[in-house]
Design brief:
The protein has 152 residues and is α+β, with helices and mostly antiparallel strands. The strands form 2 sheets. A 5-stranded antiparallel sheet has the order 2-3-1-5-4. The protein is elongated, with a radius of gyration of 18 Å. It starts with a strand and ends in a 5-residue tail after the last strand.
Length: 152
C-alpha cells in the first residue's frame, strides 16, 4: 500500500461473524475506490477491534463522516487515528447520528431551533441546511454525537 490513512473500527455484536466477510461487506457498502486493509487488534472481551488502513484519504474521510454504519443490524463504529497514536487506546464513547425533528409549526422553523433541539439530544456536529419536506411537513435535521452507552 502507498499512503497510509488510518482508522480504528469496533464491531459491537453478539454474532459469530467471519471478520473477513464483515470487512468485504463494508468495503462494498462504502464503495472504496482505493485499497483498504484491516488488521486485528487485541481488544476487550466481546469487542472486535481492527486497524483500517486506506490508500485514499477520501475513502477514509467518507468512512469517518458517513456513519453510523451497521452490519446485520449491529453497530460498526469507526474512529480516526492520528499519526503516531496507539490504536489500542482508541475510545468508542459516541456514535455520530442524524436526528430528524418533525411536526414543528411552520413559524418556528429556524436554524436556531434546529441547533437547540440537537444540543438537547447530544453534542452538536452540524445542522442540515438542505433538509427537505413540503411546506406543511418540513423537517429539521441535525448531526449529533450520541453517547454510545446511554439508553434512548
Amino acid at each position: 500500500m502507498r499512503a497510509r490513512f488510518l482508522a480504528v473500527r469496533l464491531f459491537m455484536s453478539v454474532l459469530l461473524a467471519n471478520s473477513q466477510q464483515v470487512i468485504e461487506h463494508m468495503k462494498r457498502v462504502w464503495k472504496i475506490r482505493g485499497q483498504m486493509e484491516a488488521n486485528p487488534l487485541e481488544a476487550g472481551e466481546g469487542q472486535r477491534k481492527f486497524i483500517l488502513e486506506f490508500t485514499e484519504e477520501g475513502d477514509r474521510d467518507h468512512v469517518m463522516c458517513g456513519g453510523p454504519w451497521q452490519y446485520k443490524g449491529d453497530a460498526f463504529l469507526v474512529e480516526g487515528l492520528q499519526v503516531g497514536a496507539d490504536p489500542a487506546t482508541a475510545l468508542f464513547t459516541h456514535v455520530p447520528m442524524w436526528v430528524q425533528f418533525r411536526n414543528i409549526p411552520f413559524n418556528l422553523l429556524t436554524k436556531k431551533l434546529e441547533r437547540d433541539l440537537g444540543e438537547q439530544v447530544g453534542t452538536m456536529i452540524k445542522i442540515d441546511n438542505n433538509a427537505r419536506g413540503n411546506i406543511c411537513d418540513k423537517i429539521l435535521r441535525a448531526r449529533i454525537q450520541l453517547l454510545l452507552y446511554l439508553a434512548l
